[in-house]
Amino acid sequence: MKRILAAAAVLTALVAAPALAQTEVSEVLIRGDNTVILRINVSGDLGPRSVVVSDDVVGINCGPDAYKYTPHENRQCWVWVRKSKTALLSAKGMKGQFGKDWSVAWTGCEVLDGGRACRIVPENETIVGAVFTGEPL
Fold this sequence. Notes:
- The structure is a single chain.
- The protein has one helix spanning 2-16, and strands at residues 35-44, 51-53, 61-62, 78-82, 87-92, 103-107, 110-112, 117-120, 126-133.
- It is mostly beta strands and 137 residues long.
- Strand 7 and strand 8 (117-120) form a beta hairpin.
- The chain is elongated.
- The longest helix is centred in the N-terminal third of the chain and has 15 residues, at 2-16.
C-alpha cells in the first residue's frame, strides 16, 4: 500500500509540475516539386516590338533586349511555371501579314496557328526557341 501511495504521489508531482522538456525543430526545407523553369530564346530579324508573349504565363514578354527594363518595357525571357500546365506562347511585332510577310520558326514546343503560336506542357526545364523572319515594326 505504501508503494502505491508513493507512486501516486510521484505521478501527481509529475503532472502538476511545469513542463521542463523543450521541443526543438530542425531546419525545414521546402521544395516546390510542382514548378519548372521555362526559358525562351528569341532571335532573327528583330525590332524593339518583336516579342514572344503569353497570356497563360504571367511575366513572359521576351524580345531582342532579354533583360531590358524601362517604365515602358519588361523583357522577361525565363520564368517558373507549373508542371503539366498547358501554356500558349505567341509571336508579335512584325510588319505585314503573318505567313506572307513574316514568320516564326519555333523549337521546343508544339506549333499552332500556322506557326504564329506554340503550346508547351512542361514536365522538366523547358527551352523554347523563336526565330523571327521578316521586317520588324
